[in-house]
Design goal:
Elements lengths: L8 H8 L6 H6 L21 E2 L2 E2 L3 H4 L8 H16 L5 H30 L4 H14 L2 H11 L12
Antiparallel strand pairs: 1-2
Helix pairs in contact: 4-5
Bound molecules: flavin-adenine dinucleotide.
The site of flavin-adenine dinucleotide has 11 residues, from helix 3 and helix 4.
Length: 164
Amino acid sequence: MAARLNDPLPRLKAAFGDLGWVLPETLAAAPGPEDIYYDVVAQVEMAHWQSQRTVLVGDAAYAVSLMAGQGASLALAGGRALGQVLDGAVDIEAALARFEQGLRPLALENQRAGRRMAKWFVPATPFHAAIRDTSVNIMTWPPLSGLLNRFFSFSSKGFSLSSH
Ligand SMILES: Cc1cc2nc3c(=O)[nH]c(=O)nc-3n(C[C@H](O)[C@H](O)[C@H](O)COP(=O)(O)OP(=O)(O)OC[C@H]3O[C@@H](n4cnc5c(N)ncnc54)[C@H](O)[C@@H]3O)c2cc1C
């Protein structure tokens, strides 16, 4: 849930106003507090997603954050997986446990990826920022990006939920 601040703009200006580039202009043009989306970036780590016949899916169970860029996909995958385990299930609790066992490794892997990405989204030093920018520039260089696309075009390790 978005943080409720009376007016986040002064805090945004204090934190980011001197970063240069388009930020001073952007902050000067920012709308009133009711139209500013201001939130923390967080992950959700639950010891269990399921209790008896109650189950959590998507961000409520395993939010990976925008750092991982897979939250929507994992939420949809969770919905699909839940449908699969419940289809024809007699023992609902066992089916929900199977749902969690099947999906949890993928969610945890994405959470780890998100945490690794954090330091590149928000580099701690100018040195890290320079490495990040150089890497992005190299990857988006047309001859190389075409080659990378061939190797990394949409692939997913996925997961499977075998029925019992
Ligand atoms: C800034 C940002 C950028 C992101 N970028 C990406 C991206 O590039 N790629 C990606 O895959 N994911 C991204 N995500 C993550 C993605 O948006 C979420 O992982 C995904 O929306 C989770 O889906 P969900 O259905 O679990 O939860 P939500 O989409 O949060 O849906 C939960 C719904 O429940 C409603 N609700 C809450 N409480 C109640 C209540 N008491 N009664 C009734 N309704 C209620 C909420 O209003 C909401 O509509 C991003 C997230 C953010 C915040």
